Amino acid sequence: MLKLFLALSLATTMSSSAMARSARSRGDQRASLVQLLSAYELTLQRPALDTIGRDIPELLMDIANTPRERPQVRVRAVAAMALYPSTEIQAFLRAQLWERTWVGSSLGVQMRNQAMRSLGRGFGERAVQDIASLKDDTDPLVREGVAIALLDTQSDLAVPVLEAWLPQESSFTVRDKIDRVLQKLKGM
Questions:
Q1: From CA 101, how far away is CA 108, in angstroms rounded?
Q2: What is the pTM of this model?
């Protein structure tokens, strides 16, 4: 009987918690999400984000697209998208790879690199070609980001891409990053 009581109590608590999440307004969910993404030290975990509400994926895209948000919060919103792999998130991240409104800016490089990493982490081998399409970018920081994001895919499909790219890369630092990524992928 005690086990039944505990089970019902837990179910009621979980149900009321779920109702509280769904009852929160979108504005309250957004404010809570921005507050979480603004934390001094942040470890992104889906269960923590899910406690905020049901609209997290849409809110992450909204926050990432809001110029008035702090750059760190926008980049972290893009990072959190890896935890919500959906066709909408994938399309959003792909669009970020080619976003040109901030070319040459530090935020632009951070957003593009984080979009690549989120694609790699969230979509694995399905993202290899999207990420690899930036290996000829003019910015060496973006090209270095490509190598890191290919490692994030944890896919064997990235190995031939990196091997073909390595001898053609002009930047020593990018070549070094490609070589390190290749070693890690081959050692998996």
A1: 8
A2: 0.84
Alpha carbon distance 69, 66 (integer Å): 6
Q: Which two tokens stand for residue 6?
A: 């505990």
Q: Where do the domains of the chain lie?
A: 20-84, 87-188
Task: Show the tokens assigned to 97.
Answer: 């790879």
Residues 68 and 19: their CA atoms lie apart, in Å, by: 31
Q: Kindly report which listed range (25-34, 99-108, 144-153) carries the lowest average pLDDT score.
A: 99-108
- CA–CA gap between residue 8 and residue 152 (Å, rounded): 42
Residues 6 or more apart in contact with residue 165 via CB below 8 angstroms = 132, 135, 178
CATH 3.40.50.300 at 87-188, yes or no: no
User: In this predicted model, which residue has the larger pLDDT, 9 or 105?
Assistant: 105
- Which range (1-10, 47-56, 132-141, 154-163) has the least confidence? 1-10
The answer to whether residues 33 and 52 touch, using CB atoms and an 8 Å cutoff, is yes
